[in-house]
Amino acid sequence: MHLDIAVLEGDGIGPEVVAQSIKCLRSVEETFGHSFTFKNGLIGASAIKKTGNPLPKETLKLCKSTDATLFGALGLPEFDDNPKAKVWPEQGLLKLRKKLELFANIRPVKVFPSLVKQSPLSKTQVQNTDLIIFRELSGGIYYGDKSNDEDKNSATDTCTYTESEISRIAHLAFKSARSRKKKVTLVDKANVLETSRLWRRVVRNISESYPDVVLNCLFIDNAAVQMILNPSQFDVILTDNMFGDILSDQGSVIAGSIGLLPSASVGLEHAMFEPIHGSYPNAAGKNIANPVASILSVAMLLQHFKMNEESDAVVAAVLKSFSKKIVTPDILGSSKYGTNYVGDFIADNIMELDGSFNINDENIGLGKSTII
């Protein structure tokens, strides 16, 4: 198979972790006989500095014309700490998601058995954690009407959802649950918010089309508590843009490092794959950033294009790096290996699986219809 892939390295550690992902895709090319073409584009702070625009027209055109987008990270302190800035890096990502109509963000949260000690929670709390968060990505409060009246010291952010926006991601969540543990948990604030009441009504109606899947509804505050107390109780979590943003980062704490979790953002025509972590500018250029989240995002990219064996091979190589303790400093207190070495090791160990490495034993398989 041949794929044209747009590469948006972004800011901070983005270029470093994406470079390791490309190494892994090159290894997949060689091992499985595929062909990938990489085309770079600007986004975020780097784009603002060069063009004044966090999402240049050329970048948007590139992403629309390629098969998939591989994304790094966004943000620099000089923009974050400047409340009077007219543009900021995150605007580029929000606009890109909207223009590509990426309405579903899919974030697996899995606790790797070999890294259970990495979690700040107890082994009994986190073992067997294997859940997926389906976060609505193109609507809600992040995209609603906004106002800021400095004279009156008041500001407004409007949260708006439509039935169609809710139903399209709800169907993805239920289809995914069918191939997993057949359980969907809707997270909302239906006791307070009208948009959440709409979510609950629409999702309950849709659930009738999936009688084999159990639907449970939780308020966001309770869901946040339950994710810490007993994360293994969850299978598929379905929620809106803001709540999904919050719960996804909480999921990284359960796993033990934000540098471990990948994500996919999908629409009807386009797809983008990215680690859930930020740009971590203090680590940029120091060869200490964890590339695993970006590399596992590559595994999700391969799965999206039905290259399941190839995806499993990438995951197996990541798991081998864990078992050999070839990890970056954020994992297990190690300081022996850097970003590039870990990336090289994983890329060098991507090979056809012959049964000698059982992915299921490590409870990691990104299959089971993570992406629909």
TrEMBL record:
Q: Which Pfam families match?
A: Iso_dh (PF00180)
Q: Which organism is it from?
A: Maribacter litoralis
PROSITE patterns reported for this sequence: IDH_IMDH
Alphabetized UniProt keyword annotations: Amino-acid biosynthesis, Branched-chain amino acid biosynthesis, Leucine biosynthesis, Magnesium, Manganese, Metal-binding, NAD, Oxidoreductase
Q: Which cofactor does it need?
A: Mg(2+); Mn(2+)
Q: Which residues form the Isopropylmalate dehydrogenase-like domain?
A: 4-346
Question: Would you say which domain of life the source belongs to?
Answer: Bacteria
The protein depicted here goes by the name: 3-isopropylmalate dehydrogenase
What does the subunit section of this Swiss-Prot or TrEMBL entry state? Homodimer.
